[in-house]
Structure formats: structure tokens, C-alpha cells
Structure prediction request, 340 residues.
Amino acid sequence: MKKHINIPYFVPHEGCGHSCVFCSQEKITGKECKTNSNIEEKQQFFDTVETTLATVSTDTTTEIAFFGGSFTGIEEPRMIMLLEWAYSFVKSGRVSGIRLSTRPDYINEHKLNILQKYGVTAVELGVQNMNDAVLTASKRGHTADDTRKAAKLIIDYGFTFGGQMMLGLPLSTADDEVYTAEQIVEMGADNTRIYPILVLVGTELHRMRLAVKYEPPAFDELVDRGAKCLEVFLKGGVKPLRIGLQASDEINSYREYNPAYGELVWNRLYLCRMINLIESGGITDSVVFTVNSADISKAVGQKRKNINYLVDKYKFRSVKIISDNTLANGDIIKTATILN
Prediction:
């Protein structure tokens, strides 16, 4: 199977007329809003794409990805200009398609016709949550039903649909987030991104926290919620493209964010799976789990944390995790066989 990479081009906060309580695109993407001329930006765009393509092997499929703002909310002439630049690489066969992210309420047939004309292949929606009370508290400016309608349109037009969600928004519970993941699966998503809430200085969410009107879930709670949502996606056949935010020096300076979040969510997922296998099959004095070799570190956990937890909880003499590449990525099986 060919490798896949995106060539990201950020349009921070462009196209979005809303002010969600959590949003600070410049801090999240590490990019400032556009201030240069179209000529300068075109050169920057082509340099970005060409630099990446020069490092891409022939066994790789590549998409140009517009991230950071609500792409279909950009003024139409500018949106078409960016699409034309990207489409030139599609027409030449040097990239396979174009990916973009946007808001559910910025999708309609007119916009999708434009995207179709210029070779867009995938549209990711900032779903965030499917509870209307949470969306209102977060000042998202759209409803869960807007998301359902947008997702259907995207799929009807033949685009790959991806659903992005955020954990820990105001009023949101773990149950709301599992429901959101279930709804993203039900809406027909091919892929997903799971983001933990991050309270950035200068946002309304930060002011709410200072006023004791909001407190984000503890980090371990966000890991647990992420693992539960990830399980829903994997069972539903939805590919996780990213778990956690894009790391930057600025983001990493905030104590609320841990750049290892995604890895820890995978660790927790495997721990929960191993616990379920142990408790459904009876307790022995030792246990062996088998996974694909690519998943060994996920199952073992950081600093063998999962192994140590199971030994302590069930008083096992030994817990071992071995590899078998006939298993698919994500699969795990248990045997009571004792390895000497």
C-alpha cells in the first residue's frame, strides 16, 4: 500500500466570521494571518509545494491540504485563486488531490461545485460536538443538524468526508463526546481528527477560566475520553489522521498541552482492550497478548506503564506482548500460554 502525505498550506482564521470561545488560529497553527501580496503568496505557495515534492518518493500519494481556517468561507475570488494554484499540481499529475477543512455552515451546493471543478478530493468538517447545548456554549454558530446536512452534501458530491472533533468544550461530557464520535461514523466519515481542548491565553475560554466559569477536564480525563472516542472510530472503520494538536513551540509552552497526547491515547486504548480481554476470559497467573509489530509500543505503553498497571492490578507473574504481523494493525488477541 502506498504511503500518503499532505502538503499543508495554512490560511489562519481566514473565511471564518465567528469567534468560537476556544479559537486562536495563530497560536494553534504557528502562522499569522496573510499580509503579503498575491504575487508574494503565490511564490510562497509554490515554494512550499515544490520543496515537499522534492523529498517525496514515487511510492507516495500526495495531497495539497488547506488548513487553519474555514476554507469555503474565504472570499470567493481568493478561494478560487488558491484552488487554481493547487489544481495546477493536480493537472500535472504531481499530486493526487486537494484536501481542505471548513465549517459545517459554510458548505452548500454552489461551493461544492467550485471545489469539484478544481480537483478537491477531501473535505474535513469542524464538527467539534454534536450536542447543540455544547455548540451554543462554545459559540460555534451552527447546529448539529447543520453538520448532518453538510456531511450528506459532501458525500453526495463524491468527496471524501472527514470529521474533526474537540474534547472538553464547555458543558461537554464524556458521553457527549462518545455520541459525537458515533455520529461522525454514522454520517459516513472516512477519517477523523481528535483534538483535546487547549486553553490559550487571550481567548474567551481563557477569560472564562479566570472568571471560574469554565474548567477544562484534567489531562488524564482527556486521555481517557480520547481513547473512548478512538475505539468508536476504529470499530466504525474511520481512520484517525491525527490525535492531538500540531506541535509548535508556542503551544508546547502552555501547561495544559502535552505533545505526547496522541501516543497516550493509543496507550490507553490498548490498556482498556487488554483489561477487557483479561476479564472476559478468566484470570491466570500470566498472560500473553499478541499484536502487529507496529503496535507493540502502543500496547506496552510509555515506560511500560500498561504492563506495570496490569501486573499490579491482577497480580500477574508476568505480562508479555509479542508480535505477529499476520494480525492487522489495531488487532489484539490474548492467550493464557506461559512463555519461559
Notes: Strands lie at 3-10, 60-67, 97-102, 120-128, 160-167, 191-196, 239-243, 286-291, 318-323, 332-335.
